[in-house]
Amino acid sequence: MDVDQVLAALDVEALRATLLATSAATSTTDEVQTVQRLADALALAADHELEPQMRDVLRVVKSLSRLVTTCVAATAAGGAVLAALDDKLLPMLRVLRTVVMRSSDREEDEKQLRKWLPFVLTACSFVNGAELPGADLMKSVVLADEVLDEAVALAKAGDRPSLMAKYVAQVVALCSQDVAKSEWVAIASVHKRILWHVVQQVSFPHLGGDLLGRLLALTFPLVDELTDATQLIGARLLRHIIANVTPTELRWYSDILLEVLHTAIVTRKADTLGVLLDCLVESLDKLSPPGEVKHYDRFTPRLLSDTSLCSDVAVRVVFVRHVRALVVLQGAPHSLNVIRYLQPLLKVLLAGFESVNVAFLVTTLETLQATVLAAWPRIAPHTERILVGVLRAVAFCELFDEGAEFTPSPKGKEQILGLCEDVLDQLYQVNAGNSIVSDMLKVVSSQTPKLAPNEKINGNGAPKRKDKYEERWKRPYEIVATVLDKKAEESSSSTLDLAQVLDSYPTAPATPDSFEPKDVIAFKTLSLCLETWQPVVSEWKCGQVQSVDAPGASIKLSTWTLEANGNSVDFCETPNGEQLDVQTNEISEVRILSGPSYRPLGQTAPYPNPDEQEN
């Protein structure tokens, strides 16, 4: 039969009704046989015979492509027999392959191809991307792959990802065409899986522009869904989209994107949560210009709280791993925000050393290492707490019986001890100017041979790992000194003398609980230079605590003068009695000079105030 006769005999609506019927014997019906005859006629027709019929042929191609997607979607939702589906799809796919091959001979232009080729690509994507049970045995899957290969040659795309990138906007529209929201988010629905199958093949810069808004509109309902199977597909889609668009494009949707993620991360399925937190970290990185922490301030406390309250170890590993990513993003040269959250951050991390799960300990140590690097100006007061946590990890590796269920493998033990070495090495370098802490770390090193960062070889005489102890403390920024009122030489000498004398006074953590009214303290503050975006450590200042605002994490001080006088310091109230409020998270170092909290080094009993001595 000629092509025009077969086209006249083909009733697409009757074919649709036949194929969507539940009977498994539809391959023998007249409508299906007519489709097979059309494929044969198209293959045998001469070019001059086919040319006048191409408009009608392409109309039928688009109708058959839609019918292929409908059959696959109905089978996925209803669980029809795959052998019957194969019989239904093969004649239609043969028509599509024949038209693609004949179009290659005719060398159609790009404008003409865009009118019908996306329909063919969508149909083939539904066949080989639906991942139906037993699909690897279906002949139609092989035929769909052949059609895609022919389409690559027709469009001169080079490979399938390039082909999909070329027509991705049209294919995305066809994947979601005439699909209700309830069907779109349903577990059995194949449409969302096909969208993921298509989009994951396309990379930057083809997902931006107008397509970005359409993709997000299709993805957000999936992420909002409480069903894990649906939410996981939506999360993977969102992660791929965020990674392949520019920050400028993403900022147009920043508010709704962060709101969707804020709601979605309540899930406690480890795989889904990991992908969603990947989306969150990537979004915060792209949506936050350097030095801007507004979005981080919204999510950092949330993640720390969720980590602290989580009891599932697998989920907690996911949380801690992404907390590490946030610490790195907020680290140098903009470390002030990490320092703000240092107290709760260390509380969460140090609690992790109570675990006997190797993956959790490794993740905790890696995050702790990143925290020390990012917040080094404020790490010194926390050295003892961190050291206790590290020693707990060492004890986990060294003290438990080999036969215990939770005993780490040799590889896991080596990994944990290596990270413990790294953290101890960092602590030693952070406290290089504090002889008391350095001596303590040396004692620990001598008593724990596997944690000896200051020796050429470890306690067993074995050489350390290559390149492990070359200078790794590469601070990404330097301390910028403030301008002094006196001459440089005099100021430098005076500052050095004052620092040496203040070493004999007790220190304290910079928290509201460490201070009481009437305490006289010497302190340094850490602030951010708005010109260089570098942290600036001030000179030593002095003041008397007037009041402590614990909820606001601040103290009110009256300003005092501070001068070195031989082996001691002189401090007295300034005549003007100026008062200032100081945020405790801005204090980088503190010494207690006098007052209720003053205790001499090496003593536990309170030291009497100078006023009490006179009495």
UniProtKB/TrEMBL annotation:
Which residues does the annotated region (Disordered) include? 593-615
Entry's SUPFAM superfamilies? ARM repeat
* InterPro entries linked: ARM-type_fold
The UniProt entry, under PANTHER family, shows: OS06G0694100 PROTEIN
Q: What is this protein called?
A: Uncharacterized protein
UniProt source species: Phytophthora megakarya
